[in-house]
Amino acid sequence: MPGKPLKVLITRPKAKAQQLALLLNQQGIVNTSQALFDYQKNASAHDIATALENADILIFVSVAAVEFAHASYPLPNNLSQTIFAVGNATKKALQAIGITTTLSPSPQQEHSEGLLKLPQLSKVIGKRIIIFRGNGGREHIANSLTLRGAEVRYIESYQRVWRTLPIIIAEQWRAQKINCIVVTSNDILLALLKYLASTTNSTDNYWQSQCLWVVVSDRIEKNAKALGLTRIINTHGASSQILCNTLQALSCS
């Protein structure tokens, strides 16, 4: 974006948004944050205890899945199950509560597809697998492992409570000359586009055709294109450092 400094909108949940904002501030990249949802505890101690008694493999899909499960039922650090984390941040969240023997994909494969490529999940016939996640969400991991012969259940340790944003927020983004938006999930992408459509004149296509959208996976990129976005950068990774590196490179181009 030669001659046009980046002004970035971060749409991640609060903790991850703060982490990315700190890195961007250190690089002198102007940014603002707006979470689209909040987290709320969703599973009981009994639910989690019962699941742990009847599982061979545990999969944690996010930091929130770890933190809210542990808040509901303190997870012992000597679990006998094989434990997987979808990404490095989730792995670190498990380490923070004393669970150190965790398997996870490489940094460039921190998503469902990367997890499913791990050889330890290739032969799971008859295995009882518990996936810790939020309410709803993608079914790809469960469906794939079921096809491989596993018995899969969910513990939805938290739920997302979506915010209702007033029109003035979108007006503030335009006043701040936001020209780049970071989106890290399809749910966030859909919610944000729905909000922008409700606050923008139908003839105004700024967000769709002029704003740069930074996404973190092929799946989100494909969906963004299908929804009419034209300027898309795929970082192929959702860590704050990967996002910062991409935005720093863009700001220097």
UniProtKB/TrEMBL annotation:
Quote any Pfam family the record assigns: HEM4
Q: Where is the Tetrapyrrole biosynthesis uroporphyrinogen III synthase domain?
A: 20-233
Q: In which pathway does it act?
A: Porphyrin-containing compound metabolism; protoporphyrin-IX biosynthesis; coproporphyrinogen-III from 5-aminolevulinate: step 3/4
Q: Which terms under GO biological process does the entry name?
A: protoporphyrinogen IX biosynthetic process; uroporphyrinogen III biosynthetic process
User: Which EC number(s) are documented for this chain?
Assistant: 4.2.1.75
Q: What SUPFAM superfamilies does UniProt report for this protein, alphabetically?
A: HemD-like
Entries under InterPro entries matching the protein: 4pyrrol_syn_uPrphyn_synt_sf, 4pyrrol_synth_uPrphyn_synth, UROS/Hem4
A GO molecular function term, named singly, is: uroporphyrinogen-III synthase activity
The alphabetized UniProt keywords are:
Lyase, Porphyrin biosynthesis
Where on the tree of life does the source sit, at the highest rank?
A: Bacteria
**Catalysed reactions listed for this entry:** hydroxymethylbilane = uroporphyrinogen III + H2O
What is the purpose of this protein? Catalyzes cyclization of the linear tetrapyrrole, hydroxymethylbilane, to the macrocyclic uroporphyrinogen III.
Which protein family is it in? Belongs to the uroporphyrinogen-III synthase family.
- Listed name of the protein: Uroporphyrinogen-III synthase
Which source organism does the UniProt entry give? Colwellia demingiae
